[in-house]
Every structure is written in C-alpha cells, then in structure tokens.
Amino acid sequence: MFNTEAKETTRSSGRLQRWAIHVWRLAYYLKFVWDKLANRWGTLDDPMRTNFYIDMWRAAAQELSVKFTQLPDGFCEASVNGRSTRMYQNLIMLDHPVTMKLARNKPLVLKLLSDHGIMVPEYCEFTLRNIAPAIEFLHHHSPCVVKPAHGTAGGEGVTTNVRSIRELKRAAIFASLYGHTLLMERQIPGESYRLLYLNGELIDAIRRRSPRVIGDGTSTIRELIKRENERRAYLNGTEGLTWLRADLDCRATLRAGGRTLNTVPKSGEEIVVKQAANDNSSRENESVRHLLCDQLIREGARAAMIVDVRLAGVDLITTDPRRPLKESGGVINEVNTTPGLHYHYQVSDKAHLVPVLVPILRHLLELDVHQQVNSY
C-alpha cells in the first residue's frame, strides 16, 4: 500500500513539474513574440543591415573593377566577361543546400568533428519533455551552455553560465522556443575566435570578445545597455548590426558575476553583459590572424573540410591562439556555412581590417588574382 502511495506521489510530482515547465514556457513564448514584434531582438533594422552589405559588396566590386548592379529587395549582382553572381547580405552562391542543412545540425557536426579527432566540447542532446540527461550532464560539467540543437544561428536561444537545475530549466525553455531538440555543452574557458576559410584557405581571423558596457557611476546596467543600443542605431549599424539584447544569457552572465540589470557599476568599470559574442560591436572585435599558430589554422581548415563547407566560419574557443587546441584545452564548437561577414569589417583595429569580400567575390567570378578584367 505504501509503495503504491509513494509511486502515485512521485507521478503527481512529475506531472506538476511538467505543468510548471509548460506554464514557464508559455510566459517565455509570449515575451518572445512581444520582443519580436517590437524588434527588440535580432538586427537593428533589416534595411540598415541590407544597405551595409550592399555598400560592402559594391566596394569589393570596385576593388576588382567588375560591374556591380543593385537589384530590388536587397539583392545585388556582380558581373564580368559574361560571368555573374548574385548576393544577398552574407548569402552567396557557393555551398550546396545539403551542406548548409548539415551544418545547422549542431550535434551531428560535433560528432563528425570528434570522430576525426578534432577537439570539441563535451555535449548531450535532450528535449524539454525529457530533461533528465541534461540534469545528469550538469552534475558533471558545470557550468554549461544550452542552445537549440538545429537550425539556428547568431546566438538565437543560447544561454551560458548554467549552473543549477533551475537555471537549466529556464535555459531549456528559452532554447525550446527555437526548436524541439536541445543541446547542452560544457562551457569552455577562453575567448571566442572566428576563422574564415575559403576552399580551405584562411582569409581572416577575428577575436570576438563578449559584449560589455562601461559604467558611469549613476546608470544601471539596463540603462547602459539601452544607451549602447541607441549608439548603434545612431551610427546606422556601422558599429554593430544587432541589438545588445537583455535576454536570458544576459541575465545569466550578470548573475554569475553577482550583478543584475539594476546594478549601478562604478565610473569606468567595464562589465561583461553577455557571454555569447554574437551581440558585440566593433569595440569587441579585432583581427588576430597574426596571432594564430600554424597548427590551429590547420585544425580549423580540417573542420571546414570534414563538414565540406567551402566558405566556412569556424568558431573556436581558446585561452591562447598561439597554441594548438589540445595544448590550450580549447575546442571548435561550430562550423558555419553562411558566416556573418560584417564582423570582419566591424573591428576596433581598422589598420588590420581584412576586406574579406574581395577574395570571396574574386572566387565567385573565377578571376585570377592578377587578372585584368573588362567589366563592360
């Protein structure tokens, strides 16, 4: 009798927990929809992003002395000697749709890389309905990162600094707004680097530091974030094409440092407000190709080759890019097929800026490096 009552109590407790998660998810979903409608998350403004890319593609075409045509709805075209190619923002006519689909499958990419001896973070897949594997994983690998497992980019649904079961559930609910299957990774110490490859050749490498604000002694972190977003909008996206979002990752990062959005930092105090680097600005990006050791460059090229990506943004985390990943304890955590190319132009050290669209457009139009062209 007592066993029966205990089992029934356990079942009732489980049902209550599942109902609580669904109620939380509904609240997150309603806020998610509201923020989307208000454009509080994502790009500052799609026309602003489009115009920024059009200007970059036009400059690359001028550098190569090829004809540039701006098409309706944000598309553009470059042509020379009977050859042409079309672009839309960071999208180009190069990688196969199957490759692009595969690269959006984060667990599969991690498995492929791991099977070939590439260093990747420990990870596990789970769902909101079956969160037990993630709880077990958290016990052994705290802190962790939770993200959607498929189909997202740009830091959508990502929460870092997950240390407790309560934080895990919140992060899982947030990630589930973007997809059914979820991914949990061990959070790796170090900074984020984006290595950009074209057919296995490194074009550029940037260090993407976490976004931060600087205190003035009177404003809260919430107010400083608002001011940073106003600055980005005023500069028409030239300093950053996304809002600095006060999302779950922001709150988790602040909480890990003993702060909240209502904390008032000291004057001149630099506060990291998000761990994920996607919402950073040119202040936090710098070109660092000269810092990379040869073996690290080869490891990134191998990762791009394994996933069969021709234009690849290989994301890695390391404490020292002058050492191989195995020595530094670093990992490759993503291979992107449609990497954001604007990051390479929005850097703090303009003297080291690499105009990556020039070699990309040269390849798309099948131009030799020293070839003289007639664009008309």
Brief descriptors of the model:
five-stranded antiparallel sheet
Instruction: Please tell me what the overall shape is.
Output: globular
Structural class: alpha+beta
Any idea what the radius of gyration is? 22 Å
Oligomerization: single chain
pLDDT below 50 for ≥5 consecutive residues: which ranges?
5-10, 372-376
Compressed to H and E, one letter per element, the order equals HHEEEHHEHEEHEEEEHHEEHEHEH
Could you give the distance between the termini?
89 Å
What's the CATH C level of the domain at 46-116 and 189-209 and 282-376? Alpha Beta
Q: Output the CATH topology of the domain at 46-116 and 189-209 and 282-376.
A: D-amino Acid Aminotransferase, Chain A, domain 1
Task: Characterize the largest beta sheet: strand count, sense, and whether it forms a barrel.
Answer: 5 strands, antiparallel
Arithmetic mean of pLDDT: 89
Note down, in words, how this protein is organized.
The protein is an alpha+beta fold and 376 residues long. Among the domains are: 46-116 and 189-209 and 282-376, ATP-grasp fold, B domain (D-amino Acid Aminotransferase, Chain A, domain 1), CATH 3.30.470; 210-279, no CATH class. It contains eleven helices and 14 strands. The strands form four sheets. The chain has a five-stranded antiparallel β-sheet. Helix 1 packs across helix 6 (165-176) and helix 2 crosses helix 11.
